[in-house]
Amino acid sequence: MKKLFSVLLTLAMLFALVACSNSSNPAGNTANEGGNSNSSGETESDTPAYHIGIVTGTVSQSEDDRRGAEAFQAMYGEDMVTLATYPDNFTEELETTIQTIVNLSDDPDMKAIIVNQAVPGTTEAFRQIKERRPDILCIAGESHEDLPEIGSAADLVCNNDFVARGYLIVRTAHELGCDTFVHISFPRHMAYETMSRRAAIMQAACEEFDMTFVQETAPDPTSDVGIAGAQAYILEQVPVWVEKYGENAAYFCTNDAHTEPLLKQLFEYGGYFIEADLPSPLMGYPGALGLDLTAEAGDFEAILAKVEEAVVAAGGADRFGTWAYSYGYTTSAGLAQHAMNVLNGESDLEDIDDIAKAYEVFSPGAEWNGSSYTNATTGVKSDNTFLVYQDTYIMGDPGHYMGSTQVEVPEKYFTIA
Fold it and tell me: What pLDDT is recorded for position 60?
């Protein structure tokens, strides 16, 4: 009996120990006692039970877009965030582009797919995804396809605000003392609705602010002259334009390849540059000023500080502007953040304030604003397509934001075709 009592007592003590152990780990999860330590500081039990996919161009073609995707992945972990890239020659490899996007939906835990920039093929990819997985949020950033078309397949579309910016860029130039606005482009770009509408809005804004609006044509970098020939043309023409329009003229070009030579010559000969077509302190400035930003890569506060210092040293204080944070970078990361907020029940998908809140996570100190896309032909506003913009930052000593996001754009500009 004594032996039996001892055995029973021992068994009771072991049972108590097992029970205590289970109470401290009710899920019975012994895979990682320290939790799933990712860069966001979440434990495995805290990690949302869904995945988010981000598709961008490659580093060689769309570095800022890709870096933004990487920043979001670094924040929330590779287990939650999947990255993919479409081909550099996406127009020639349409099927590969479509399949790259669609493949993300093979993951049963995938709940949101963001494509930035939404190149041709994104609309078809989203349609295929919705057919097989209607539960996945499909979000497009900076669409290359017609906005009503991609809006018919995507849950949300966000492009740069070519309407409000058409007005605000001219307004900013006027506030800085400019009397002339020079718009530089070529026929292929002016065939796009977004760019032709913006040019028309800029012209109308110049009339409102009693400024002269000028359109100059430059070679298309995709033509026979190539990028080198197009840039050589800008280098040759800027001194002529400054002589013709004076040093109080502001310049704007629709093509990235034109930006660097334009800036380089404006520093040399005079003139104003409010912001690029797709603004970033990395757009044109490093090449024009001979800057090496390798050490600052990914740190936009440090990048802006170094660019601004060089702008001031080149005599460009209060004449050159940008967005403090890259548009491509913040669009990739911001739209992914917005998707996560929506999936967590913290934001509404089609709320511009919630979209701006997500963008601001990756652009601290810089405000965002925007509005629903309005079809210029029908006057109808879209429920799921938004145009967004960041406050303009004018570099100087000290530099300053222009408060553009607080300006109310007159309603008439939203229907100018």
Answer: 74
